Structures are given as C-alpha cells and as structure tokens.
Amino acid sequence: MSVEDYDVLDRQVQALFAGEDDLVCAMANFSALLNESMSDINWVGFYLMKNEQLVLGPFQGKVACTRIPLDKGVCGAAVSLHKTQRIDDVHQFKGHIACDAASNSELVIPLCRDGSVIGVLDIDSASLARFTKNDQIGLEAVVKSFESCLFG
C-alpha cells in the first residue's frame, strides 16, 4: 500500500471508531477492515494480554494459536521488547510458532493503553518479505489512531 492508501485507511479508522468504547467490537471491525484493505495477507487479528500470556482475540483468517507465551514467537517478542516486529521469513525467527504453516512473513505491532502493552495486532502473509518499512510505518500510525479512538 502507498502512503496515500495508509492516509485513507487512517481516516477510515478515525471515522469508524470515534466514540467506540467496546474493545472487542472495535478489534473485530478493525481486523475486517484490514483484511479487506490489504492484499497478500492470510491472517490478521489481535492477541490480548491475560495472565502474563497472549490470548487470541478477534481475527480474520484460519484457525489460530489460542495462547502464546511471552517468551515465544514474533508476537511474544513484540510484547517483550515493546516494539514492532517486521519479519521477512518467520522460519528464520528463533522461537517462531507455526500456527499456520502457510505463513512466511509477519508484522506484529504492540497495542498500548496508558503506555502499557495490552495486546498485539498480528498480520501474516504467505509471501516472504511481504511487509515493507512503508507498511510498518503506515500501520503503526493506523494503530495509534485506533488506540486514540478507544483509549483517548
């Protein structure tokens, strides 16, 4: 997606979630919006922090791992490092969890409230190196707008 595409997506997020206060409802629609807006992805959704692990939340795609320890996988790394993880080849990532063997690249962005990570947005693709730096920057901005709409 281009910078302009991410700007349009950002405005859609702001319009769709302005005044929404139900996190699960918003995550479900946000997953659907991203699934419709992005090409060459095979899974998009959320994992939420519960009892020191990530638990599956709303998503679009095939059946997924239900729980992820914080010391495992790309999602666990995003939470532990409090930093977006953009992985060109998940099979080269130490501790990768293969929820879907068809996934080859992954982008995981922490979802934060009041400075604390409460979950992650996880996007997978069957293509190697699917996600660019432009995708990372654009999606990080869109996630910030999503957080602002829900958490102020």
From TrEMBL:
It comes from the Bacteria. Transmembrane segments: none annotated. Residues 44-142 form the GAF domain. Belongs to the free Met sulfoxide reductase family. This is GAF domain-containing protein. It comes from Shewanella surugensis.
